[in-house]
TrEMBL record:
Highest classification ranks of the organism: Bacteria, Pseudomonadati, Bacteroidota, Flavobacteriia, Flavobacteriales
Protein name: Adenine DNA glycosylase
EC number annotated for this UniProt entry: 3.2.2.31
Species this chain originates from: Maribacter vaceletii
Function according to Swiss-Prot or TrEMBL: Adenine glycosylase active on G-A mispairs. MutY also corrects error-prone DNA synthesis past GO lesions which are due to the oxidatively damaged form of guanine: 7,8-dihydro-8-oxoguanine (8-oxo-dGTP).
Keywords assigned: 4Fe-4S, DNA damage, DNA repair, Glycosidase, Hydrolase, Iron, Iron-sulfur, Metal-binding
Length: 343
């Protein structure tokens, strides 16, 4: 039996019941793929359901304010996904009469859509003969064929894409692509894969050569950067605080946060008070919420964060009502603080 036929047979017996598998509507498939790019199915599913309930059509998403989109996305991270999703929706509605492109060539032109997402939408929605290569596919192919080329090298990206194309089931590309990704997600898992019951075990090179735990190979390129964040939490007349919107191309673009002082290292109370006085144009007498910094880990940086409380009767720019804090899209780090701090 061909590799692709084994995958299709396994998928027919083992595929999970997921909400986006009840439709071939490209809007729904696109939304699910964007959510799942950096998110596991269990975490992503509630977000998918919230989005499709709030924005049932691409027209609904396109007409929504960005803040509403970011608020729904809050907690998923990698917020550029949400901004790109929104921009692409507006483009499709404004420039393509709301009709989703059907070909890989046209799909990949959309903001935020790369090779994988374009291939997934084209094949799942339109059964186009496009091979998907995501983390699950890399893992399955590298183990089955015993390939030790790093998956995040230029050579590896080209090699695995070519291999995926060669293995493609051209009659049922839709289910084959979903099948190999599903196979990697629940059978050929990153840790402790179920090799005993695997339908590919008799011809899996990694299993034969005891290489399963070592594949796929990925080059470690990113050095983790440490940053030291000091958030000032003004409590003004017991009813107001201050929020600023993040701008620029860094993390959390478009989200809201308390006034931020970023320093080169962990700072003393006197240092933060001095910086806060200059930042807010107020005599800042602070006390720290927790002595030990909260370490918030992102993919390429660790944020050593402290929250400093400033109680005052003096008005400050960008005041908001404390009771309305929940309306603003904020990073999960700040959302967690708002939940735990008793204003």
């Amino acid at each position: 039996m061909l590799f692709s036929h084994k995958i299709l047979h396994w998928y027919a017996q083992n595929k999970r019941t997921l909400p986006w598998r009840t439709t071939r509507n490209p809007y729904n498939i696109w939304l699910s793929e964007v959510i799942l790019q950096q998110t596991k199915v269990a975490q992503g599913t509630p977000y998918y359901l919230k989005f499709t309930d709030t924005f049932p059509t691409i027209q609904d998403l396109a007409s929504a304010p960005q803040e509403k989109v970011l608020k729904l996305w809050q907690g998923l991270g990698y917020y550029s996904r949400a901004r790109n999703l929104h921009e692409a929706a507006k483009f499709i509605v404004s420039n393509l009469d709301g009709k989703f492109p059907e070909s890989y060539k046209e799909l990949i032109k959309l903001k935020g859509i790369g090779d994988y997402t374009a291939s997934a939408i084209a094949s799942i929605c339109f059964n186009a003969q496009e091979a998907v290569v995501d983390g699950n596919v890399y893992r399955v192919l590298s183990r089955y064929f015993g390939v030790d080329i790093p998956i995040n090298s230029t050579e590896g990206v080209k090699y695995f894409k070519k291999l995926a194309v060669e293995l493609l089931d051209k009659e049922n590309t839709r289910d084959y692509n979903q099948g190999i990704m599903e196979f990697g997600a629940i059978q050929c898992t990153p840790k402790n894969p179920d090799c005993i019951s695997c339908p590919l075990k008799n011809s899996c090179v990694a299993l034969e050569k005891n290489m399963v735990s070592g594949l796929p190979i990925k080059i470690k390129k990113t050095k983790i950067k440490k940053r030291y964040f000091n958030y000032i939490i003004p409590i003004i007349k017991d009813s107001f605080t201050v929020l600023n919107q993040r701008t620029g191309k860094g993390i959390w673009q478009g989200l809201w946060q308390f006034p931020l002082i970023e320093l080169a290292k962990e700072a003393s109370l006197n240092e933060v008070e001095k910086e806060a006085t200059a930042l807010l144009n107020i005599n800042a007498s602070l006390h720290v919420y927790k002595d030990v910094a909260i370490v918030h880990k992102l993919s390429h940086q660790h944020l050593y964060t402290k929250f400093w409380i400033l109680e005052t009767t003096q008005e400050i720019d960008n005041m908001v009502k404390i009771e309305e804090l929940e309306k603003y899209p904020v990073p999960v780090l700040i959302a967690d603080f708002i939940k735990t701090y008793k204003f």
